[in-house]
Amino acid sequence: MSTTVEPVQNLYQVSGAVIKPPQLTHSPAGISHLRFVLEHLSEQIEAGLPRRSYVRIVVVISGDSATQWAKELNVGTAVHVSGFLNRTEDKNGIGKLVLHAQQLVKI
């Protein structure tokens, strides 16, 4: 008897504005990485009641598109990002979520 395991999904989508200047870096392997902070503000309905939603998240774009987006993104640019979430730790060992962008659209 075999069982089929569904693939686990890790997909996050959010729209917002760039609030810190994007920083382009390169890994030792030569891969480009563009990091910026995205801020989202909205009102969502939860349990039938309105709730303010406020999110600030670091977004990373990797690969060839990182260099292209480095020329196009500035503080205040509105974007819609979709990708996957990953955990990272800062130099103090504090964990935080980072959105690894697989698709980015200016809005």
UniProtKB/TrEMBL annotation:
<dbReference type="InterPro" id="IPR023646">
    <property type="entry name" value="Prisomal_replication_PriB"/>
</dbReference>
<dbReference type="GO" id="GO:0003697">
    <property type="term" value="F:single-stranded DNA binding"/>
</dbReference>
<comment type="similarity">
    <text>Belongs to the PriB family.</text>
</comment>
<keyword id="KW-0238">DNA-binding</keyword>
<dbReference type="InterPro" id="IPR000424">
    <property type="entry name" value="Primosome_PriB/ssb"/>
</dbReference>
<keyword id="KW-0639">Primosome</keyword>
<dbReference type="GO" id="GO:1990077">
    <property type="term" value="C:primosome complex"/>
</dbReference>
<protein>
    <recommendedName>
        <fullName>Replication restart protein PriB</fullName>
    </recommendedName>
</protein>
<comment type="subunit">
    <text>Homodimer. Interacts with PriA and DnaT. Component of the replication restart primosome. Primosome assembly occurs via a 'hand-off' mechanism. PriA binds to replication forks, subsequently PriB then DnaT bind; DnaT then displaces ssDNA to generate the helicase loading substrate.</text>
</comment>
<keyword id="KW-0235">DNA replication</keyword>
<dbReference type="Pfam" id="PF22657">
    <property type="entry name" value="SSB_1"/>
</dbReference>
<dbReference type="InterPro" id="IPR012340">
    <property type="entry name" value="NA-bd_OB-fold"/>
</dbReference>
<comment type="function">
    <text>Involved in the restart of stalled replication forks, which reloads the replicative helicase on sites other than the origin of replication; the PriA-PriB pathway is the major replication restart pathway. During primosome assembly it facilitates complex formation between PriA and DnaT on DNA; stabilizes PriA on DNA. Stimulates the DNA unwinding activity of PriA helicase.</text>
</comment>
<dbReference type="GO" id="GO:0006269">
    <property type="term" value="P:DNA replication, synthesis of primer"/>
</dbReference>
